[in-house]
C-alpha cells in the first residue's frame, strides 16, 4: 500500500522527468500565444489612437474634448509602454508578421486616410470627426480587450484588458455626450 509520502515522491519524480518541475535559470520566458497576439494587435492600435488624439491639442474647439484627448493620450502611451515591456521581457517581437492575425479578425485600426483627413480639420468640424472616429476606434479596443479577458492566460495581461474595456467604454459614453451637444 502506497503511503502519502510515497505518492508525493512519485508525483514529484514525474514532474522532474517531464520537465514541469522548474524552469531552467537561463531559459527565456515566453508569453502565452494568445496574450502575445493580443499585445501585438493592441500596441499599434494604441499608437494610432495616441496619434489621433494628439491632434486635438491645437485643432479641437471643445475644451472638454481637448482634456479628454490629453487623458486618452497619456493613458494609451502608458499602456503601450507596459505592453512593449511585456513583449520584450518574453522575447517576443513587438509586431507580428503581416496577415499573421487575419484568422482572428485581423488588425483593427482606423483607416489611415481618415487619420490624414483629421489633420486637415479644425474647430467644430474637427471635433465631430474626431469624436466619430475615436468612438469607433475605442470600440475596436473594447472588442479586443473582451476577447483577451475571455481567452487570455496571463493574469496581468487580462487585468490590463479589463481596464481597457472599462475605460474605453466610459470614454465612448463621454464622447457620445459630446457629439449630442455638438
From TrEMBL:
<protein>
    <submittedName>
        <fullName>DUF305 domain-containing protein</fullName>
    </submittedName>
</protein>
<feature type="domain" description="DUF305">
    <location>
        <begin position="35"/>
        <end position="179"/>
    </location>
</feature>
<dbReference type="Pfam" id="PF03713">
    <property type="entry name" value="DUF305"/>
</dbReference>
<keyword id="KW-0732">Signal</keyword>
<feature type="signal peptide">
    <location>
        <begin position="1"/>
        <end position="23"/>
    </location>
</feature>
<dbReference type="InterPro" id="IPR005183">
    <property type="entry name" value="DUF305_CopM-like"/>
</dbReference>
<dbReference type="InterPro" id="IPR012347">
    <property type="entry name" value="Ferritin-like"/>
</dbReference>
Amino acid at each position: 500500500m502506497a503511503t502519502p509520502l510515497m505518492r508525493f515522491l512519485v508525483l514529484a519524480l514525474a514532474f522532474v522527468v517531464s520537465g514541469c518541475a522548474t524552469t531552467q535559470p537561463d531559459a527565456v520566458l515566453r508569453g502565452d500565444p494568445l496574450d502575445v497576439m493580443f499585445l501585438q494587435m493592441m500596441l499599434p492600435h494604441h499608437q494610432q489612437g495616441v496619434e489621433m488624439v494628439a491632434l486635438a491639442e491645437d485643432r479641437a474647439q471643445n475644451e472638454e474634448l481637448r482634456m479628454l484627448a490629453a487623458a486618452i493620450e497619456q493613458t494609451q502611451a502608458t499602456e503601450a509602454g507596459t505592453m512593449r515591456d511585456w513583449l520584450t521581457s518574453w522575447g517576443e517581437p513587438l509586431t507580428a508578421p503581416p496577415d499573421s492575425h487575419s484568422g482572428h479578425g485581423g488588425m483593427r485600426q482606423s483607416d489611415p486616410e481618415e487619420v490624414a483627413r483629421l489633420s486637415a480639420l479644425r474647430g467644430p468640424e474637427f471635433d465631430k470627426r474626431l469624436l466619430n472616429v475615436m468612438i469607433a476606434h475605442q470600440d475596436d479596443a473594447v472588442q479586443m480587450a473582451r476577447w483577451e479577458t475571455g481567452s487570455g492566460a496571463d493574469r496581468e495581461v487580462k487585468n490590463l484588458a479589463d481596464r481597457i474595456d472599462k475605460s474605453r467604454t466610459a470614454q465612448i459614453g463621454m464622447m457620445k455626450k459630446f457629439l449630442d451637444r455638438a
